[in-house]
Amino acid sequence: MKLLEILLLFIMAFLPPVLYAIWIRNTEKYNREKWKPIIFCFIWGATIAIVASIILEVVLGSIVVSVNSSIYLIISAVLIAPFAEEFTKPLILGFKTVKKELDELEDGLIYGAVAGLGFSATENLFYGYNAFISEGLLFFFVLVSIRSFTGCLLHASATAWTGYGYGKKIMKHTPIGSVIPYFLLAFLVHAFYNFIPIYGFITGFSIAVFVALMFVALTIYVVRNKIRKLDKLSEENVL
Description:
By secondary structure, the chain is an all-alpha fold. The chain has helices at about 5-25, 35-45, 50-65, 70-90, 95-100, 105-135, 135-170, 180-205, 205-239.
């Protein structure tokens, strides 16, 4: 790849998630989150969470293959990948830099979403590179353009829910088990999204893309609406 092509790949992979992260952070009208923990969450998602999820997927995948290799790809996409990714992305909220900022219920939603966006940026890079090498520039543009909306907002909206659960746990001093329902919600959102391409083999590519677009539009709307409501409620309680 030429230098210009590499630069284009990085810009198309990382620019949309960065802009989305700013958009999510600015959903709060009052007491917006500091940039340092926001950047920290994004970098975590783009680096350590990626590596950790790959390792976890390999470990879990080796168990599934030994049991039933014929349905490995479906199980890997719909169960293993969502579990591994939704487990590793929100771990950053337990680090002091972020944990000390969890003083409002909407904060967990924001930091979880940003970690998910960091993850999606690197994922865009991987998918974009493979598309460019194997199929050429046109397919690369189409794939990354679609993923810049669907993949990015899926990772943001799914991980936001685990972040929300962890933020509630910190603020209300509840057991760590109280986060599990929110993790399961994140897992189910991600699993359903990963199931859509399988559904597309039956209904057609165009319908699958449409379903994916509508689904992520709905999920990110719900997340941002929740942030706005909790933000307003927090401000009213202060007043």
